[in-house]
Design goal:
14 helices, seven-stranded mixed beta sheet, Rossmann fold, alpha/beta, six-stranded mixed beta sheet, 2 domains
Length: 415
């Protein structure tokens, strides 16, 4: 067992491999430390801020905007941010905010700004937010700057010994382009999901070039994962968007298909080769593949769908992609599920590494760090799965809780 003295300032991510804790109630399962409902005085729009946990006085989590957003949804997502930050040993707690609002509303940005004015004490001192469903990072920063906040990372930046230097490092990192010309910040999350899949194949002794993958959803996570898996040599045989599933048992040309996406994120079927099969959208869940990546919707894999699932492993790219009942039924069949709060945490981990100065403007450094950490965590989970039939989620909750306890009284490590 690895131990770290209380006085050590070693990278907390090193706590993860091999560490366990007694089977006691987890701090990460406690109630939120703060919930703040809000009603827009002009339009009546409802909004919510939930701070699930604070580490060193800080919490991180994006702001989403969608019709039907609820306090229960935001609370669940805030807890998942605690799990993500704890799983990767990041010295920050978890939070989330949401607005019950169509992002196409003509006053959407004005409403968002009034929400942030109400939450300004948290944004100034404790809460680091970022883009999420319905809100881009550029819009978010445009809304915050008139409030005196340089970026949505203000609360973390202002705690560093040299805020100007930290701000410049963050701006430079966010402007970094990955190979292919896309911003690194837009692809690092999908890269992390791909590394979780590659780690799964390696841990289960599969040859990556013979490993087949089906992906439900081709947005930031699903599309990015598909691109990086194709680049690594895996066979992506199925991709599903809102219009249906595209399937080729011999492998799809993922970059070509992604290039056909329209403004709604759907692949223009007019450009799809004739030999590619067009199947119903839900067919992606039941195709004979090695890895299934649900990357579009929460609760995409439900208990009644389990008998049709033929994949040998599931890697969750969407939040809560598999219901607890479905996960248990899959386990009975010998199908492990790599949980969302590990597999899709790459963007959150990378942002905090950038804030702390652990990565900079060289994308290869970021890719290597995320690859090393993601694959180590997947290997640990699947070793316990293979040796002791421990669910990967249980293993991940164990090391996340261990990290969370160890970090509870630390301060953000920013040079």
């Amino acid at each position: 067992m690895t131990t770290i003295p209380h006085s050590s300032r070693q990278d907390a991510s090193q706590l993860t491999p091999g560490m366990r804790h007694p089977d006691t109630p987890a701090m990460i399962d406690g109630p939120p430390v703060h919930e703040q409902p809000w009603v827009d005085p002009v339009t009546g729009t409802r909004g919510f801020l939930v701070i699930h946990s604070l580490v060193g006085g800080l919490a991180t989590g994006g702001t989403r905007m969608r019709p039907g957003c609820t306090l229960a949804e935001v609370t669940d997502l805030a807890r998942r941010m605690t799990l993500k930050t704890a799983a990767f040993g990041l010295p920050v707690g978890g939070a989330k905010a949401g607005l019950d609002l169509d992002p196409h509303h003509p006053q959407a940005l004005q409403i968002l700004q009034r929400f942030y004015i109400a939450m300004l004490p948290w944004l100034d001192q404790h809460w680091v937010t970022a883009e999420d469903m319905g809100i881009s990072q550029s819009d978010l920063d445009d809304v915050l700057q008139p409030l005196g906040l340089s970026t949505s990372y203000h609360a973390a930046i202002q705690r560093s010994p040299n805020p100007d230097q930290t701000l410049q490092r963050v701006l430079d990192g966010m402007a970094t382009q990955a190979p292919g010309g896309l911003p690194l910040r837009d692809v690092i999350g999908g890269y992390g999901v791909a590394q979780a899949c590659i780690g799964t194949a390696r841990a289960l002794d599969w040859n990556l070039s013979d490993t087949t993958v089906a992906i439900q959803g081709i947005g930031t996570m699903g599309g990015g994962a598909g691109w990086f898996l194709h680049d690594a040599g895996a066979e992506v045989v199925a991709i599903a968007d809102a219009a249906g599933t595209l399937y080729d048992p011999h492998g799809l040309d993922v970059p070509a298909l992604l290039a056909l996406r329209d403004s709604y994120g759907e692949i223009d079927r007019a450009g799809v080769p004739d030999h590619v099969q067009r199947l119903p959208r839900e067919a992606v869940l039941s195709l004979p593949t090695d890895i299934l990546i649900p990357a579009a919707l929460s609760y995409a894999v439900m208990a009644d769908a389990v008998p049709q699932v033929q994949a040998r492993a599931v890697v969750e790219a969407a939040n809560s992609a598999t219901t607890p009942e479905a996960e248990e039924l899959l386990a009975v069949r010998g199908v492990p599920v790599i949980p969302d709060f590990v597999a899709n945490a790459g963007a959150a981990a990378w942002t905090w590494w950038l804030l702390r100065g652990l990565v900079g403007t060289d994308p290869e450094d970021s890719f290597q760090m995320l690859s090393d950490q993601m694959q180590a965590k997947v290997a640990f989970m699947l070793a316990e799965w293979s040796e002791s039939a421990v669910l990967p989620r249980r293993s991940a909750l164990s090391f996340a809780d261990t990290n969370h306890r160890a970090l509870a009284n630390t301060h953000m490590l920013v040079p």
